[in-house]
Amino acid sequence: MRRVLAGVALVSSAVACSNVDVDRAPAEAEAAVTEPVSICPAPRAGSNTGYQAGGQTRSFELLLPPPSFTGPRPLLIAFHGTGETGRSFVHRARLAEWAARGVIVVAPDAVGNGSVWPVWDGMHLPGAPALPNADLALVDSLRACVGAHFSVDAARVYAGGHSAGGIFTNHVLRMRSDVFAGGVVASGVFDFTEPVARSALGAMTVIVTWGGDNDGFGGWDPVTGVGASGFTFVEQAAMASQYFAREPNVAQAWCRGDDLGHVWLPMNGWLMDVLLARPKGTSSALALPPVPASAGSTCASSAFALPAPVATTCAPVAQAGCKEMCQLFADCAVANKSVGTALAGELDAIGLAPGSCGGCTARCDAHATTPDDDAVLACFAARSKATTCGPGLAGGLPVFDDFAACCNPHPGSQVCADLCATFGDSTLSAFVPICPRTTRSGPPTAALFESGLRP
Fold first, then answer.
1. Average pLDDT over the chain, rounded to whole?
2. How many CB atoms lie within 10 A of CB 285?
């Protein structure tokens, strides 16, 4: 994602605030919006630094409505994407339009807390321990602090974010549905954003957006160096749409751009019309207003569904196990519209494409020249009987679990060396490391294959 730094100048100020008690029961968290002003020094319009929350020093951008607005004001907490700041995201997404409509906007800066994608701490692999989340603590703290110093409408508190910020918005809405009235999940990964303790969501209105079929990300986090190329968000948006639509207390809508790319859709007015009309606790059916032509988007309140993937069937070759190995990659990766698009180049390199498997089995047959290869392919054949694939990153993981389990004990396998050389530095390695990046140019070793797909 491109970093955008130009835009309307905002007043800068430094604010040093004390920690807010964020370990609250849901009922207490709701009351936190109106805690005494002594909770922290008053934030000011513009850039705020030195804010203490979750054991970290943080910064954020604050937009205030014009003084002509009186009474409790809605609050939007907005999360930026990779390589951005709260300030640059405010300009890129034109969030001043929200303030002009009477909404207080808070846009914090990430500090690289994420364990899977290194921006916001919004994704956790299955089995990961439930550790304190400093970013979630920041959200709770900002909500309380802003509510202590400004008149905030506790029934109209929203979250919104794009790209990496959309990932974190998924997590925030799933973790704090007791206090948020809803939000905008824009081009965010849905996989791995679920709370450790699953429970029904509270009443919310959630709008899932993406830029269209060409909404993809290719870039690097400048702090950590972790990057991705060719990752598309269409399937992730569909998964989020279907999830929120299934929740009995959630009103869900989706908006798809007409091939606008990886953008926050240019429809702030429409988003506000929908959300502000549905304060916390609204139970009526969602009726969407007409979408302005200037938005270049289509919206609906039904769950968004992707078309079925193209089936790929692998035929047997002389080497036993090659068919099963290639079929696993076809089912878990090629047919997967998150993994398959991100790894299209790598899958093509091993001879796989939608509807085409012959190159993979032939390549496997040619590389299988050692006893370790026989053992590896027997392992793939055995594991294929129990492996089940599905949508999203989580649905593609089984084949890479099988990859690690079968290859790890057999460093002499040429089949595994070929797979690792192909996938080791791939886009997927940003999410689930398969092979150490330093081994691509060297010979197979016992350390070549990692089973680190599960913490």
1. 85
2. 7
* Confidence (pTM): 0.84
State how far the Cα of 212 lies from the Cα of 238, in Å rounded to an integer. 12
Give the confidence band of 356 by pLDDT, cuts at 50, 70, 90. Answer: very high
Tokens of 67: 């003084």
Q: Using CA atoms of 315, 318, 320, 321 in order, give the dihedral in degrees to the nearest 10.
A: -40
Domains of the chain, each with CATH number or no CATH = 26-300 (3.40.50.1820), 322-439 (no CATH)
User: Given the structure tokens 């390199």, which residue do they identify?
Assistant: 349
Q: DSSP letter string over 290-328?
A: PPPGGG-EEEESSPP-PPPPPP--PPP-SSTTHHHHHHH
Closest C-alpha to 238, from 302, 180, 297: 302
The fraction of the chain above a pLDDT of 90, given in percent, is 68
CB burial of residue 2 (10 Å; 0-12, 13-18, 19+): exposed
Look up residue 141 and give its amino acid: S
Phi-psi region of 48 (alpha: psi -120 to 50; beta: other; left: phi over 0): beta
